[in-house]
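Hello again,

I reread your note about wanting to compare the complex against the isolated chains. To keep things tidy I'm splitting this into two emails, and this first one only covers the full assembly. Below are the input lines as submitted, including protein chains and any nucleic acid or small-molecule components. They are followed by the predicted structure of everything together. The single-chain runs will come separately.
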Amino acid sequence: MRETKQKNLIMSIISNSYTHPTANEVYEECKKTIADISLGTVYRNLNLLACQGQIRRIKMPNNIDRFDRYSDHTHFICGICGKIFDVPGGYVKNIIDIDGHKVMDYELNFRGVCQNCLEKEGEI
Amino acid sequence: MRETKQKNLIMSIISNSYTHPTANEVYEECKKTIADISLGTVYRNLNLLACQGQIRRIKMPNNIDRFDRYSDHTHFICGICGKIFDVPGGYVKNIIDIDGHKVMDYELNFRGVCQNCLEKEGEI
DNA sequence: AATTTTAATAGTAACCATTACTGTTAAGAA
DNA sequence: TTCTTAACAGTAATGGTTACTATTAAAATT
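Full-complex prediction:
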């Protein structure tokens, strides 16, 4: 694998982001630095980095993937506004070996209604 | 909401399935009973049932959603062959209220290499 | 430093799971 | 039985993602 300025830029954008950006949002951010970067390049590198375990892919209900620094395993996704929040760990235990399968990672998504949407519901 | 033979059929297929079928697989199964059922009808009812919490939607790495009886929250997905396995519960604790958000459900996906792919790797 | 190799890129077209649309049908109420 | 309209079948459109191709530029070699 070759080191390119495009790959480094994409990696640094994800590393420094706390917003779980979509591929297109990463693309828009990239264009500020490399004006003619290709959307395909963004997708290819996001896939590559996710496959290598350097970043995390988060599957969203609307089928638009989001990406995240690798540190977070646990998220809360609001079913009303669709926003995604980081959640501190500690909810999962005993993850070594399940039914003979080798566990390398996990993704835990809580679903419900976020604080902001709860308050809005109260106003109705 | 009206009760229709299409909706009942789709619900019964999911209820009696242990294979986490895709929308298209549900469609193919439906056609054995209702030959001219529409793929759009399958999608509409799967979305409806998932939204009502009667069935569960599982987001897969390849962006093709799978559907499941509502009982299972926890799955293991193999990164090699892509197969999905049911996992008994007990891995998640303390799921009441997170940072002020109302938690109504959760999805826990373990990722790794399944037993079968582990054995194949050993053969190389 | 110049040359060579080829992985990665930019730009664009294609893919395909899913959704939207429209005229028709049938569930359930009147 | 008639009426209302939610749900349906069939089909077109959408859009996130992937595939393709000529070109560029890492980085190894000379």
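For quick reference: The first strand of chain B starts at residue 55 and ends at 58.

B.
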